Amino acid sequence: MVKIKQSELPGQVPLGPSPSVRPTTSIQLVSPAKVRLSLISRHLDKPDLILNTPFSTERAGLIDLIPPTPLSGEPTLDQTDIMSTQVNHPTLLIPGPVEFDDDVLQSMAHYSESHVGPSFVAAFGEALSMLRKLFITSNPASQPLVVSGSGTLGWDFIAANLVERGDDVLILHSGYFADSFADCFQTYGINATQLKAPIGSRPQLPEIEQALKEKKYAAITITHVDTSTGVLSDVKGVSELVHRVSPDTLVVVDGVCSVGSEEIRFDEWKLDVVMTASQKAIGVPAGLCIMMMGGRAIARYNGRKTPPYSYFASFKNWLPSKYNKIFASTVSPNRKLIGSHLAVMQNYEAKKPSYFATPSPQLIRALHTSLRQILSMPLEQRFAVHEHTSQKVKKAITDMGLKQLAERPENQANGMTAIWLPEEVRALDLLPNLMKRGVVFAGGLHKQIATKYIRFGHMGVSVTDPTRGDIDKAIQALKAGLADVGYQKK
User: Fold this and answer.
1) Residues 6+ apart with CB under 8 A from 73
2) What's the pLDDT tens digit per position in 108-141?
3) Cα 121 versus chain centre, distance
4) Contact predicate 282/133, CB 8 Å
5) What one-character-per-residue DSSP string does 315-378 give?
6) Average of pLDDT values for 355-381?
7) pTM of structure
8) Sequence-separated (6 or more) residues with CB below 8 Å from residue 139
9) Distances from the Cα of 144 to the Cαs of 39, 126, 157, 336, 419, in angstroms?
10) Which of 50, 174, 375, 406 is the most buried (most CB within 10 A)?
């Protein structure tokens, strides 16, 4: 567990970007005309629906929500968000997308530019290099990949390139997203075996060891944090086990809900692939699939017997490989660059224009800004701040008499909390009440228990910028909202 000094905790000193880095206030940046138009638009816009889950039970009854209005005696959104340049809105505290920093959103407003122009190429290259620091890898064999798409695209990259039809993969199941990953593998003709745990738990190391000894697996997948349950997996422990018991098995981590909020050390833990997405703890609007691949993963791809069964998601279009019949030029003593458009990621990182499919310049600009903010503090401190906030949230939930899906502390994520609802409380009643208080939580997502719990996301700028007050506001709203819908602590 990472230690943090008391003076470094939220509420003591700001932990995000220094005030000198942040934009000037909204009065200086927004013209009077824009302010008036913004005020008018709030009366014209229809409220967003709370569609936090694909299940109809969560959607029913939420269509007629009125715009959030403060309840008696509570601060208005104008008071709590006075320093932001964003239009007033309920605070989004679901397990992604998360709240975004003003600087990040302003980067999204960058003027249109060529995706092979020198300015953009430099920004993309710097973002790729910063990802190495975020994943904590200095191994020259590692390769970052950023492609337009959701985190789900990472599953396709893995299934299409790193395993072949007829291969076996072992999927550690700690929630809803293991089922989906298994479905993706099966789509590519790969045999997916799931090792399941009870809801709120994770497969244990002895079970995993037994499974690895029974069959040869091309890869094992670990959902670092399952967004549906808030269960945290022991990535380090599993990787150590795999390298000891089944060293040829690739260690693949689904870090969509963990990278940026949970400790993850690519080199030290000997990971082969970590995939994630932009809209969670990395703090960038949805639309980027982000991956880090190690040398073993790239070697596995280069040793394929058959070409990948994908076009867009084929590594041959993004990375250097044996399929790229081209010559290499030396970029540095430690790394080589394939001198072609087919080595898109290495080209961009070397500040050379490249092309296969058009990236999103605005999203890459936002990623560049967010990564600079993230790396402005030591990662150990960032991890510790998320852990501290998580403990604060979980203590408040316990004090309210509520329970978590993940009961054991070692199974509890630091970037989100899944909360069982009391028997007398329905999500359909509680979530709209929270919305009126200016806070958005997520409904349940796990198929078996979707209507019985809610999810509280606490990651990214809502955690690292204590001046926002998002977490305290959410805890207070939850406590008051439960009372409003008839809950009394027993």
Assistant:
1) none
2) 999 999 999 999 999 999 999 999 999 999 999 9
3) 25
4) no
5) GGGTS--TT----EEESSSS-EEESSTT-HHHHHHTT----SS---HHHHHHHHHHHHHHTTS-
6) 96
7) 0.82
8) 266, 267, 294, 295
9) 42, 11, 13, 14, 35
10) 174
